[in-house]
Amino acid sequence: MPLDYVVTYRAENHYDTLVNRAVWQFLIIPEDNDSQELVSVDFENSLGVPVQHSVNGLGFTTLQLHPNVPFSDVRFRATFKVMKQEVNPFDFIPLEDPSGGYRQIESLELKAQFEPFLRVTPYTRLPDDRQELYIFDREISVFDNLLALNQWVYRHLFFQSGITHIDTTLKEVIESRQGVCQDFTHLFCGLARRNQIPVRYVSGYLHQGNGYFGDSQMHAWAEAYVPGVGWIGFDPTNDILAGSNHIKVAHGKDYGDCSPLKGVIFAPGNNRTSHSVEVTAQQAQQ
Amino acid sequence: MITTNNQIFASYQKDPTLFDEVFDAQGEVREVYEKLFELYGNHTISNYVQLNNKAKASFFNQGITFQVYGEHETKEKIFPFDLFPRIIGPAEWDHIEKGAIQRSRALNLFLWDIYHEKKIIKDGIVPLELLSSSANYLHQMFDLDPPGGIYNHISGTDIIKHADGQYYVLEDNIRCPSGVSYVVCNRTALKRALFGVFNHCQAHTVTNYAENLLEILESVKPQGVDIPNVVVITPGMYNSAYYEHSYLAKAMGVELVEGRDLFVENDFVYMKTIKGPERVDVIYRRVDDLFIDPLEFRPDSALGVPGLFAAYRKGNVCLANAPGTGVADDKAVYTYMPEIIKYYLDESPILKNVHTYHCNRPEELRYVLEHITELVVKPVDESGGYGISIGNRLSKAEIAAVKEQIKKEPRKYIAQPIMSLSVHPTYIDESESFEQRHVDLRTFTLLGKDKEFVLKGGLSRVALKKGNLVVNSSQGGGSKDTWVLKNDQGPC
Question: Which among B140, B295, B306 has CB closest to A58?
């Protein structure tokens, strides 16, 4: 049965000096795909500036604001209605023969196709002395290895808000063994790519109603390429496969491709930003 | 027959191991230079010096300069200029021109492929690591169709003549190749100083570059645009090539803008004018990839335009050259140019590549180790001349060390024969006479929708230090006007 979600994204920016010109780009709209349908988008801002729909470099829809009045405080609120299909993430048949899966993974065809998602990026770089941190078992399938990795990352790190920030490297995460969903996901991406599996960093919303880890912010998880199946979502923060509680916004190589709010401010001085996200669910009435 | 009893060349010393552009192995003047040699012979060195100084002063007075970035200060210099031109005959030029177009077309097809189907990689011709290790292989360009299907609208190909008298390509520059404004200025200065001499020679014009550039840029206009509005975007007056940016805008009759002069609204690009916003359709950008849009690339860039890449992605504006072309002007990609030309065009390369030995291939590794004294060994992943070993300048101990290094990591190294650039008589201030100096040639090729153009002429760069092979202007190189003779005329 489909689920109806209402997602509310709020952000508040304060600038120390009066800003005359700015450009903001929000990457926060739920994607329209096979498992979710975007029903409505409502966007308000305290400056009353009209919103423009645009795209980011990888083709995901963005919202842009170009205010033309001076301001020092601004509030944004976006509300999305999304209908999510109830999916069983295990509802596919992985290749029986593990060696067939690895043959595909190692083929030039696949490596060339998904090259960006095999890259070592600043966020997913494993420290030199931790390259062997998690090596796949060739006796079991790629999918089973990814499931095991998902659990390993979940057990290796403790969910803790406020310890890490957007510039935290995997070296620090592995040493402190603490972090939030971005850190869990970057570690999963780094280790899976180290084992030659193409992986995308996914940014989206998590319905936390069932006691899942998140922190009232945007959530992050990973999509790995499973030979013979396609992209499968793994949420290492919660040791689950991405399912009907996960509402996808965008994917990229790492957080850098997915940051929800980018701004170019033509003014000196500092600024403070706060975000919050709320996801509420109700059974679809049909 | 004209020989060197010409007083201006009385003290000219010829090194027989080098290829001299003006004199052949017997010491006689080559056919294309005959008339010029005769005309110059009517003068003395002091006449020549006087004219050369006048030409230099005119450069300075016109502000045709470039910046040299120093440790403490930035100096404004004129590009050292020599009044004795380099001359290329019609047949020789035809070969260069065909070769330059062939390379540009092959590179364009290569770029389309590696940003779409990636066939050349899947077929195992070009290794994937070559691209994935390049910071210029932009994920943002995947499956994006640039207007007209063109990536490298403007290419600068660096060519040398080796001791065997053959032309070889050293490098393809397809990011923001500069230098074309100096070609035009050199010609202007030469014509002003030696009007009579130039009139005796039927050389092709170089001032038609700007009109051809404009035509090329207009040919890749976005869909639905009738008469496109073209602009040149510059990082600003502190950029070393600012003179060139302003020259090109002026010569094309289009606006020269900085990032702050443009803005994006609903994925269309506009220029601020006193009459209000004016839509921009084609941008000749002289700002590097990572600085063109702070929302998509480097967020700290103040040189770009927020939202420009989204406008490009939607096909509402054309950028020339396309972002991400830099992946193909890499040193490592260069070594695959013969294979790239064969793969896409099914032709043999017209202009030769300097032969490259890949140490990861066992037979080639063996050859490199056996002939190391005749080779230059270069690491594939370094730039700016770091880690290069020139075989004939190494001691025995150094040779052993280099060999060990290669054996340890053969993938990391390539080797090339030691090339010797041809030399050209060049007036040297210190000795007050003409001496042999090494020269190269940068040609300029334009590629548009159903149109291509090679500037008949180019920038002959001269290494002013004796024996030096580095011709870069930042390293104290100078330049000469380059004459390409017309077909139906006799020698000059």
Answer: B140
Per-residue pLDDT at B158: 93
> Could you tell me the fold of the domain covering A3-85+259-283?
Immunoglobulin-like (2.60.40)
| pLDDT tens figures, B163-206 | 889 999 988 999 888 889 989 988 988 888 888 888 888 899 99
Residue-range domain boundaries for chain A: 3-85+259-283, 98-258
CB contact under 8 A, A56 and B132: no
Statement: residue A133 has pLDDT above 50? yes
Residue of B447, B455, B453, B349 whose CA lies nearest to B152: B447
User: Which chain B positions have a beta carbon within 8 Å of A119's beta carbon?
Assistant: 132
Q: Interface pTM (ipTM) of the complex? A: 0.94
Give the residue from chain B lying closest to A52, CA to CA. Answer: B266
The rounded distance, in Å, linking the Cα atoms of B376 and B384 is: 15
User: Rounded distance, CA B321 to CA B173, Å?
Assistant: 11
Q: Answer whether A112 sits within 8 Å of B121, measured CB to CB.
A: yes
Is B383 among the domain residues? yes
Task: Give residue B360's domain range.
Answer: 355-417
Q: Judge whether B469 and B438 are in contact, CB under 8 Å.
A: yes
Q: Give the model confidence (pLDDT) of A91-111 as tens digits.
A: 777 767 888 899 999 999 999
Average pLDDT over residues B39-48: 83
Contact A227, A254 (CB under 8 A): no
| Cβ within 8 Å, pair A115-B140 | no
Q: Is residue B376 part of a domain?
A: yes
Residue B299: what are its φ and ψ, rounded to 5°?
-70, -20
Strands A52-55 and A61-65: what pairing? Answer: antiparallel
Residue B63 lies in a domain: no
Q: At what angle do helices B209-219 and B180-193 cross, to 10 degrees?
A: 160
CATH number listed for the domain at residues A98-258: 3.10.620.30
Q: Which pLDDT tens digit goes with each residue over B98-153?
A: 999 999 999 999 999 999 999 999 999 999 988 888 889 999 999 999 999 999 99
Tokens at residue B98, please? 């065909």
- How many domains does one find in chain B? 1
Q: Note whether A233 and A214 are within 8 A (CB).
A: no
Q: How many CB atoms within 10 Å of residue A249?
A: 23
Tell me the per-residue pLDDT of B311-341, one tens digit each, with 9 for 90 and over: 999 999 999 999 999 999 877 788 899 999 9
Q: Decide: A227 and A198 in contact? Cβ < 8 Å.
A: no
Per DSSP, the residues of A1-65 read --EEEEEEEEEEEEEEEEES-EEEEE--PPP-BTTEEEEEEEEEETT-PPPEEEE-TTS-EEEEE
How many cross-chain Cβ pairs, A to B, lie less than 8 Å apart? 61
pLDDT on residue B196: 80
Q: What are phi and psi of A109, to 5 degrees?
A: -50, -55
Q: Is B300 on the interface with A (CB under 8 A)?
A: no
Q: pLDDT per residue over A6-29, tens digit each?
A: 999 999 999 999 999 899 999 999
d(CA B414, CA B368): 9
User: Band of the pLDDT at B3, cuts 50, 70, 90?
Assistant: very low
CATH of the domain at B360: 3.30.1490.270
In a domain, B413, yes or no: yes
- The four Cα atoms B337, B339, B343, B346 give a dihedral, to 10 degrees, of 90
How many whole angstroms from its chain centre is CA A152?
19
Question: Residue with structure tokens 């050292």?
Answer: B80
Output the pLDDT for position A114: 96
pLDDT tens profile B387-433 = 778 888 788 888 899 899 899 888 788 888 888 889 999 988 888 88
